[in-house]
């Protein structure tokens, strides 16, 4: 039987397998940090203030690289041509390698630049506003390809052998997805079997949509390594592309990211030395999830670059384009979009910088919630921002950059941006999966205390004892979630931000109480209430956005940042109230029944 906190005994086989696998790969540490305190209804602003400032030396080191990267991108790359031709020219690959862009975080001893997580995120911001294809190439290589898992889990030998090749421009990839495995790794078919002499694994299977797979010299492949006790065990293996039995079956093409070297990769009796296991046999999903914890920050960082660029284009156009007697930016409907663009760029940057600083302060920091919330909120904001910019630019937003250029107009690539960024809310954890992941983590403290009482797999006396323990705990926890206790708001803060944070604390307590009420109402069936949980997660995300933006604006101190943070706090408060209202009155159950009818053949 699984030691999962969640009672899976009444689930279907597929559901149980998916959930038990996810549970067994979770980080078992108790949640800590600012985001966790928001879901617990006791925001610890002391964990956020003062907003972590990048050390001067680290910033200067980053600035040198960012300056070179910017210059290279502006002078030596043509993102519209890359999009049009579906190829990244060899000179661009070579130039990026010479800059060290393939080994940004790889330590100097392995030939990399050895830059911090903050500087890596800043590089993703520069890339994200320029070229989605180059961003995806470098991000898939460094955030999920070989470097990140090897930096966390690699043996000295693996690091010495592979990292210098990665840093020098050897491209790597990460292969998890299969035909039947999207968000659910329990259905994985690719299998690695240990040889009798224990020296090798033999790998068979086929991976879908492997980014960089066409160019990679090596990839991290996730494979089943089932045992009698753990039939869904997975293992992460380093596989080199030129080994016998590794074959690129086809290149995949998409709506955007036209120059992604993404493909179907087949493995037929590929022999992999046991020394190429990452971490240990059976730890594959843990490797993937831990890698993604930090890896996930790259997408919102890239969205910061995208949002900054969209904001600049939208502001410029809104000031120049005159319709109905005035600049379109003076019409209320367009002005609101400009305000949101600027606010979302600032807010996403605040989330990414805050979480990156946590990693830089402690490589083992628990950023599960912060990184996931940044991914969820930042990629949705990126999509909203591009959509708003397209609306602001009207027909010119929908027109391709090449066509605009041909007509002698400024070739703003909004159409390309829209195609390229749509995938951000799907890969590296779709919005729906991020909602589930964050909800599971946010509920963890309650599950640890209360789940045993409701677990039908346990005996009655064990359940009663658990209920008593939980009752005692909640007898003090619950009343406190009604008390106006606010910790850690620093003195000297802008008065509007003080009230923004006070509202954050009120909403955080309401969030914790509402989660508690829902647990009491739905019991073990709460996980079925995906929309309800999703809205709780969205409230938590807004609260983190409000707090991080306020803290960063306070640290920056300029009027522009303060104005943005004040707006973000007010907007966040309204959004949270709307989300709570939706959880009270939205016709979720009716919608679910309607969908069930549709799936049953109705219309
Ligand atoms: C351009 C591109 C690049 C990629 N690069 C890589 C790569 O390098 N390596 C790699 O391994 N994979 C890669 N992928 C795969 C990508 O990570 C998957 O597309 C993603 O995991 C989602 O899987 P799926 O598309 O099969 O969707 P599915 O898992 O089939 O999901 C379909 C829809 O159902 C939703 N859904 C699924 N389960 C649930 C649930 N329990 N509750 C609520 N909603 C649910 C999803 O959110 C989604 O909206 C790439 C994909 C693309 C398109």
How would you describe what is shown here?
The chain has 603 residues and is an alpha+beta fold. It has five domains: 1-30, no CATH class; 56-171, Acyl-CoA dehydrogenase/oxidase, N-terminal domain (Butyryl-Coa Dehydrogenase, subunit A, domain 1), CATH 1.10.540.10; 173-290, Butyryl-CoA Dehydrogenase, subunit A, domain 2; 296-425, Up-down Bundle (Butyryl-CoA Dehydrogenase, subunit A, domain 3), CATH 1.20.140; 449-599, no CATH class. Helices cover 58% and strands 9% of the residues. It has 22 helices and ten strands. The protein has helices spanning 13-24, 34-39, 56-76, 79-85, 90-99, 117-128, 132-144, 147-153, 156-167, 284-295, 298-320, 332-361, 368-393, 395-398, 401-406, 414-421, 431-454, 460-480, 495-522, 530-556, 559-585, 588-599, and strands at residues 172-175, 191-194, 200-210, 218-224, 234-240, 246-251, 263-273, 277-278, 322-323, 326-327. A four-stranded mixed beta sheet has the order 1-4-5-8. The chain has a four-stranded antiparallel beta sheet with strand order 2-3-7-6, with no helix packed on it. Strands 9-10 form a two-stranded antiparallel ribbon. Strand 9 (322-323) and strand 10 form a beta hairpin. The radius of gyration is 25 Å and the shape is globular. The protein starts with 12 loop residues before the first helix and ends with a helix. The mean pLDDT is 94.
Summarize the structure.
By secondary structure, the protein is α+β, with helices and mostly antiparallel strands. The chain has helices at 13-24, 34-39, 56-76, 79-85, 90-99, 117-128, 132-144, 147-153, 156-167, 284-295, 298-320, 332-361, 368-393, 395-398, 401-406, 414-421, 431-454, 460-480, 495-522, 530-556, 559-585, 588-599, and strands at residues 172-175, 191-194, 200-210, 218-224, 234-240, 246-251, 263-273, 277-278, 322-323, 326-327. It has 5 domains: 1-30, no CATH class; 56-171, Acyl-CoA dehydrogenase/oxidase, N-terminal domain (Butyryl-Coa Dehydrogenase, subunit A, domain 1, Orthogonal Bundle), CATH 1.10.540.10; 173-290, Butyryl-CoA Dehydrogenase, subunit A, domain 2, CATH 2.40.110; 296-425, Butyryl-CoA Dehydrogenase, subunit A, domain 3 (Up-down Bundle); 449-599, no CATH class.
């Amino acid at each position: 039987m699984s030691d999962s906190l969640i009672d899976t005994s009444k689930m279907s086989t597929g559901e149980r397998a998916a959930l038990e696998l996810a549970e067994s790969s979770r980080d078992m540490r108790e949640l800590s940090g600012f985001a966790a305190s928001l879901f617990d209804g006791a925001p610890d602003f002391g964990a956020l203030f003062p907003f972590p400032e990048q050390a001067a030396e680290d910033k200067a080191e980053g600035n040198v690289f960012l300056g070179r990267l910017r210059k290279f991108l502006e002078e030596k790359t043509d993102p519209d041509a890359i999009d049009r031709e579906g190829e990244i020219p060899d000179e661009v690959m070579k130039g990026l390698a010479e800059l060290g862009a393939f080994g940004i975080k790889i330590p100097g001893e392995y030939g990399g630049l050895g830059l911090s997580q903050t500087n890596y995120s800043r590089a993703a911001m520069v890339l994200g506003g320029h070229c989605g294809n180059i961003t995806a190439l470098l991000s898939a290589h460094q955030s999920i390809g070989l470097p990140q898992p090897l930096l966390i889990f690699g043996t000295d030998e693996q690091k010495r052998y592979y990292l210098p090749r990665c840093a020098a421009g050897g491209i790597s990839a990460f292969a998890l997805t299969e035909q039947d495995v999207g968000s659910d790794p329990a259905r994985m078919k690719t299998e690695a079997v240990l040889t009798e002499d224990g020296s090798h694994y033999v790998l068979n299977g086929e991976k879908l949509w492997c980014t960089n797979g066409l160019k990679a010299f090596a990839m991290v492949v996730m494979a089943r390594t089932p045992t009698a006790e753990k039939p869904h065990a997975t293992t992460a293996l380093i596989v080199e592309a030129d080994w016998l039995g590794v074959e690129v079956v086809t290149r995949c093409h998409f709506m955007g990211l036209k120059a992604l070297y993404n493909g179907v990769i087949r493995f037929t009796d590929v022999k992999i030395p046991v020394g190429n296991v990452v971490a240990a046999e059976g730890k594959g999903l843990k490797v993937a999830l831990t890698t993604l914890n930090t890896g996930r920050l790259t997408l919102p960082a890239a969205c910061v670059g995208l949002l900054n660029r969209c904001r600049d284009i939208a502001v410029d156009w809104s000031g120049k384009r005159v319709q109905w007697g005035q600049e379109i930016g003076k019409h209320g409907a367009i002005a609101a979009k400009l305000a949101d663009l600027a606010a979302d760029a600032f807010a996403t940057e605040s989330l990414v910088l805050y979480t990156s600083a946590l990693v830089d302060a402690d490589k083992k920091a628990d950023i599960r919630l912060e990184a996931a919330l940044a991914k969820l909120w930042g990629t949705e904001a990126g999509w909203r921002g591009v959509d708003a910019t397209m609306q602001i630019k009207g027909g010119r937003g929908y027109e391709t950059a090449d066509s605009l250029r041909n007509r002698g107009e400024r070739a703003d690539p909004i159409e390309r941006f829209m195609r390229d960024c749509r995938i951000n809310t799907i890969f590296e954890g779709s919005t729906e999966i991020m909602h589930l992941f964050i909800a599971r983590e946010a509920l963890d403290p309650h599950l640890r205390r209360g789940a045993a009482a409701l677990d039908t797999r346990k005996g009655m006396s064990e359940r009663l004892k658990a209920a008593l323990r939980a009752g005692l705990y909640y007898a003090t926890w619950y009343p406190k979630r009604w008390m106006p206790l606010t910790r850690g708001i620093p003195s000297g803060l802008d008065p509007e931000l003080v009230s923004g944070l006070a509202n954050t604390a009120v909403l955080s307590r309401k969030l914790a109480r509402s989660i508690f009420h829902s647990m009491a109402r739905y019991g073990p069936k709460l996980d079925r209430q995906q929309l309800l949980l999703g809205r709780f997660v969205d409230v938590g995300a807004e609260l983190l956005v409000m707090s991080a933006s306020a803290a960063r604006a306070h640290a920056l101190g300029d009027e522009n940042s303060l104005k943005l943070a004040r707006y973000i706090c007010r907007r966040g408060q309204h959004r949270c109230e709307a989300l709570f209202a939706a959880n009270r009155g939205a016709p979720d159950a009716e919608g679910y029944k309607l969908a069930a009818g549709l799936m049953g053949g109705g219309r």
